[in-house]
Specification:
Strand content of chain A: 15-25%
Radius of gyration of chain A: 26 Å
Structural class of chain B: mainly alpha
CATH superfamily of the largest domain in chain A: P-loop containing nucleotide triphosphate hydrolases
Number of domains of chain A: 3
Strand order of the largest sheet of chain B: 1-2
CATH class of chain B: Mainly Alpha
CATH topology of chain B: ABC transporter involved in vitamin B12 uptake, BtuC
Largest sheet of chain B: 2 strands, antiparallel
Strand order of the largest sheet of chain A: 6-7-8-3-9-10
Oligomer: heterodimer
Largest interface: A-B, 41 and 34 residues
Helix content of chain A: 25-40%
CATH class of the largest domain in chain A: Alpha Beta
Helix content of chain B: over 70%
CATH architecture of chain B: Orthogonal Bundle
Number of strands of chain A: 22
CATH topology of the largest domain in chain A: Rossmann fold
Radius of gyration of chain B: 20 Å
Shape of chain B: globular
Largest sheet of chain A: 6 strands, mixed
Distance between the termini of chain B: 10 Å
Chain lengths: 515, 324
């Protein structure tokens, strides 16, 4: 780590960007309430908080995508409104997103100068000047990139560099980095840190959103913690300890109500031993019992979904074995996974769930056709029977099972998708972020349903990034970090602090008890 | 959706019937049974290829090589005939060769992930080149082909030529395959939402490759029928016919985006084009008008499709949901 020059001036400088009293509500959700935030030139402010704490909302307000309901934004003391993304950019605020929002088919230079390309004679783009200027900008941030390279040929780290060069090209004063290291490799992360130092030296104010404590303590000067849409604390990095940050992050009253259940564990339903993948995960081992809900907690990109996709036959593990019930199972395709009694309800139910254009009953029976057909021919009566059985169990409201699934509302489509999986009579059901993006009422219904499934003896794996959900639903939780299992807690050992610490790589959280 | 499709097929059937009726008012000889049989018979190759193409388009792909494949298999059949190979073997070989060409398309799409339009544009050209290579660019004409070879598709059984019967039997088999087998169902799933299809245990690539193989086999079979019917084989047989085939599918309401369509639609789409092609000479309109008319029919069909899709919006009202 480079030794920073003494910063006697830290408190004395005026903030370049000041937010006061910002509130923002969406129908049924209060995303932000009376939030204040100050960003200082030449300093990194780390913004931390759990999923749903309001971090993305504040980024969208700062970049002009959302307008706050109340509150004021001031840039260098001047009150302004960011009515559009262009207005925010013109005021010198720019964001580097987790997944870059650049144009894959354009060159590096075009991406940097899109919308403000240098013009030559007759208003045409001056390519030579643009490439030269791009080269100079890239050199300024120490990026070894060819301005005429096509963006789609670059990795995520390089795309971040292009975003940063773009920020410099519009002479940004405020740079927002939204989990910039989530998708980067170890080496790329360190290069990014060096770049952040350089931006600081140029006097940029940086808002750095991250879940990783090690990096916050490494690069940030100030901190701010959001919880449930409110600013619950802020201050100087040198005055804070990580335990204090964790406490502020999770210190909420859990106001959600989760179904009470008495788990009755049966024999092992799924045993995974030494599952490895060359790039995504390593040495995954666990035993899941019938009637159990096993939570998988971790930060985004910790490899949880990747493990599940491999168990479901979408990718092949390089090593390892799994046993379903008492049989060794070899799963090379999703069809084999389903035949073995494993089903996976993916996170993105829109694109990976219902098949629009097919009637409801055909959507339900699609993975069960082997069972409903005889001698290679479909039996429609049998399909209707199966579809009726499972859709009525879920209280699906539809005029007829013959109607196109696209005509159903979102909630009912989701019921069709779940009916589809239950109709395969699975032994193990994997739910990936089952309540992401749905309202509180529907969440409760999903939780109720999950409890019911486990009560019927199904083995349930729940991948979730929401601590209350993990705490409220799982009988046991496995925490993953950077592709490895880093901790495992039984229900009575789980605390929000332990989960956050383990996921952030601050030890498995058990040492303090042992000590 | 299925109700809309049914009404759409009724619409197309009605359009064909009223077209025939209109022509019959001025030219009653057009509706003479022998002429109608002739028209249907002439349309049989288009029906056969349209059925294969339908399977491919349902699976979100397209096959531009069917006509070239037809020509290759026809040429091979004709050459085998000149060598004195028995007819059943020739038919089998032509069908198998067509299936192999289709399978190559399918494997390239499946294993190498190349867009179907590019793959089949390539195999289309390669196949035409192959015909030139094996035939040396020479024609095989009437005198060189045996009588039994030429007679089979033309021989009349129960009032219809064998070629027409082949189209009817294949269409019925397709109705069963598409509507009553897991493979048929998976075509709709793959075309409707490939991502979701993967998660339901369907091998998307293999399903698409199978569709290509099927289309190829039908092109091979039709290749023999075509050569025998017209009693001549040369490099440029059925040149540009692939566009008629795709047009028949589009007019028949097979969604070019995949996942929607029916066997009846494909057959009716082919018949629509067939009736126009056979009626224009009777009515005395230049064949060049035929192109303009089929072109307009394609645009009209696509416009109707687009309107239907727009109508099927999201249903948000609870009351509308139970009514739908």
């Amino acid at each position: 780590m480079t030794v920073l020059p003494p910063r006697a001036d830290l408190q004395t400088t005026d903030p370049v960007l000041t937010l006061t009293g910002i509130s923002k509500s969406f129908p049924g959700v209060r995303a932000l309430h009376d939030v204040a935030l100050e960003l200082y030139p030449g300093q990194v402010t780390a913004l931390v908080g759990e999923n749903g704490a309001g971090k993305s909302t504040i980024v969208k307000i700062l970049t002009g995508i959302y307008q706050p309901d109340t509150g004021a934004i001031a840039v260098a003391g001047q009150q302004t409104h960011f009515s559009t993304a262009a207005a925010a950019e013109a005021a010198g605020v720019t964001a580097i997103h987790q997944e870059t929002v650049l144009f894959d088919e354009l060159t590096v230079a075009e991406n940097i100068f899109l919308g403000h390309a240098p013009r030559g004679r007759m208003g045409l783009i001056d390519w030579r000047a643009m490439n030269e200027a791009a080269r100079a900008l890239l050199a300024r941030i120490g990026a070894d990139l060819d301005p005429s390279a096509r963006l789609r040929d670059l990795g995520i780290a390089s795309k971040h560099l292009v975003s940063i060069a773009r920020a410099l090209s519009i002479d940004a004063r405020v740079v927002i980095m939204d989990e910039p290291t989530a998708a980067l490799s170890h080496k790329e992360i360190h290069e990014l840190y060096a770049l952040v130092e350089r931006l600081k030296a140029e006097g940029k104010a940086i808002l750095f959103i991250s879940h990783k404590f090690d990096e916050i303590f490494r690069i940030a000067d100030r901190w701010a913690v959001f919880r449930d849409g409110e600013l619950v604390g802020h201050g100087m990095m040198r005055d804070v300890h990580e335990a204090q940050l964790v406490r502020l992050m999770v210190g909420r009253s859990v106001d959600q109500i989760f179904p009470k259940r008495q788990p009755k564990l049966g024999p092992p339903a799924l045993t995974v031993a030494g599952y490895c993948h060359p790039t995504e995960f390593d040495d995954i081992r666990f035993t899941l019992h019938e009637g159990e809900i096993l939570g998988f907690y971790g930060l985004i990109g910790a490899g949880r979904s990747e493990v599940m996709q491999s168990l479901f036959g979408l990718t092949k593990p390089s090593k390892g074995a799994c046993r379903i019930g008492d049989r060794i199972a070899v799963i090379r395709s999703t069809a084999e996974a389903i035949a073995n009694g494993i089903v996976y309800v993916p996170e993105d139910r829109g694109t990976q769930g219902a098949i629009k254009g097919l009637p409801i009953f055909q959507n339900v029976t699609l993975p069960s056709l082997a069972r409903t057909s005889r001698k290679g021919f479909l039996r429609l009566a049998e399909e209707f029977r199966l579809a009726r059985e499972f859709t009525s169990r879920l209280d699906l409201r539809a005029a007829s099972l013959d109607q196109d699934v696209a005509l159903l509302s979102g909630g009912n489509q989701q019921k069709v998708v779940i009916a589809k999986w239950l109709a395969t009579k699975p032994r193990v059901i994997i739910l990936d972020e089952p309540t992401k993006g749905i309202d509180i009422g529907s969440k409760a219904a999903v939780h109720e349903f999950m409890a019911e499934l486990a009560g019927q003896g199904l083995a349930v794996i729940m991948v979730s990034s929401e601590i209350p959900e993990i705490m409220g639903m799982s009988d046991r939780v496995i925490v993953m970090r950077e592709g490895r299992m880093v901790a495992e807690y039984a229900r009575d050992e789980m605390t929000p602090e332990r989960l956050v610490r383990a996921a952030a790589g601050l030890g498995d959280g058990m040492e303090e008890d042992r000590a | 959706m299925s109700r809309a499709l049914k009404s759409r097929e009724a619409l197309l059937g009605g359009a064909i019937l009223s077209m025939v009726a209109l022509i019959a008012i001025r030219f009653p000889q057009f509706v003479a049974p022998s002429n109608l049989v002739g028209t249907f018979n002439d349309t049989s190759p288009l029906i056969l290829l349209a059925l294969g193409e339908m399977a491919v388009i349902l699976a979100k792909c397209i096959d531009l090589s069917v006509a070239a494949n037809l020509a290759l298999c026809g040429m091979v059949a004709a050459m085998m005939n000149t060598m004195g190979i028995p007819l059943p073997l020739i038919i089998l070989a032509a069908t198998a060769l067509g299936a192999v060409v289709g399978m190559v398309n399918g494997l390239l799409v499946w294993k190498l992930d190349i867009p179907p339009i590019v793959v089949t544009l390539g195999t289309m050209t390669i196949t035409r080149g192959a015909i030139f290579l094996i035939s040396g660019g020479k024609w095989i004409n009437d005198q060189q082909l045996s009588e039994s070879f030429k007679d089979f598709p033309r021989s009349v059984v129960l009032g219809l030529p064998v070629m027409a019967w082949v189209a009817i039997v294949v269409a019925l088999a397709f109705a069963v395959l598409i509507g009553r087998t897991p493979f048929g169902r998976s075509l709709f799933a793959v075309g409707g939402n490939p991502n979701a299809a993967i998660y339901t245990g369907i091998n998307v690539g293999r399903t698409q490759a199978l569709a290509f193989t099927l289309a190829g086999a039908l092109a091979g079979l039709t290749g023999y029928l075509w050569i025998a019917r017209y009693a001549v084989a040369y490099v440029d047989i059925a040149n540009g016919f692939e566009l008629d085939v795709v047009a028949a599918c589009v007019i028949g309401g097979i969604s070019i985006a995949g996942g929607a369509g029916s066997v009846a639609g494909a057959v009716l789409g082919a018949l629509f084009l067939g009736v126009i092609k056979n009626a224009l000479p009777v009515v005395g309109i230049s064949p060049f008008w035929q192109m303009a008319i089929s072109g307009s029919a394609i645009l009209a069909a696509v416009a109707i499709n687009a309107r239907e899709r727009r109508r099927a919006g999201r249903v948000i009202l609870k009351t509308a949901e139970s009514r739908a």
